[in-house]
Design a protein that fits this description.
Elements: E1 2-7, H1 13-29, E2 37-42, E3 54-62, H2 71-80, H3 86-90, H4 93-99, E4 107-115, H5 124-135, E5 140-148, H6 159-170
Parallel strand pairs: 1-2, 1-3, 3-4, 4-5
Helix pairs in contact: 1-6, 4-5
Bound molecules: flavin mononucleotide.
Flavin mononucleotide (FMN) binds near residues 11, 62, 77, 120 and 152.
InterPro entries: Flavodoxin/NO_synth (IPR008254), Flavodoxin_CS (IPR001226), Flavoprotein-like_sf (IPR029039)
Pfam family, one: Flavodoxin_1
GO molecular function: electron transfer activity; FMN binding
Amino acid sequence: MSVEVIFESMFGNTRTIAEAVAEGLREGLGSRGPEATVSLVDVSQAPADLPEDVMLLVLGGPTHAFSMSRPATREDALGQAHVHDAERASTGLREWIAQARPSADVTVITFDTRVKKAFVPGSAARSAARALAAEGFARAERGETFWVADSPGPLLDGEVERARAWGVQLAARA
Ligand SMILES: Cc1cc2nc3c(=O)[nH]c(=O)nc-3n(C[C@H](O)[C@H](O)[C@H](O)COP(=O)(O)O)c2cc1C
C-alpha cells in the first residue's frame, strides 16, 4: 500500500507544505510496516498512471487567479521568481488532472496555498476536487487550505506544523 503526494509549486511554499504533509503521513503510517510508503512528486514529473498500490493521493497547488494555475499564471509566477523552466510552466495540477487515468477506488484529497486576505475568493483545492470528480475520480474531496501572508509568501507561522498534523490524520484514510 502506498500514498502519493503530488504538488505544484512556483515559489516553494506549496512544496514546503507538501513535504510536511508527507512527513506527517509517514509518521501516521509508521505502524503499518515497510510496505506502507509515501512518495512526494512534483506535478511536472508525475506520470498519468498512478502506481497500482496507491490507496490515497494527496494533491496540492497554489491558488492562481481564484482557481488552479494556468500556463499564463505559471509563466507570470516563474517570471517573478526569475526562473525559466519550460516543464514547470507547461504542467500544473489542472493539466495533470486532465490527462490522468481516473480511478474510482483511490481516495484523492486536495489542498492549496493562498493569501490570507479578507474577501479574496477562490481556492485551487476546491477547483481541483471538482475537476477530479468530473474526470472520474469518484472519491475526490477538497481538503485544507494553508495560508501565505502575501504573494509570493511567506507561509504564515504555524502552517508547516498544521500541515504535518494534517498528514498524520490523513494516514487514517489510506
Ligand atoms: C499569477 C498569480 C496569481 C495569484 N492569484 C491568487 C489568488 O487568486 N488568490 C490567492 O489567494 N492568492 C493568489 N496568488 C498567490 C499564491 O497563491 C501564492 O503566491 C502561493 O501560495 C505561493 O505558492 P508557491 O510558493 O507554492 O508557488 C497568486 C499568485 C500568482 C503568482
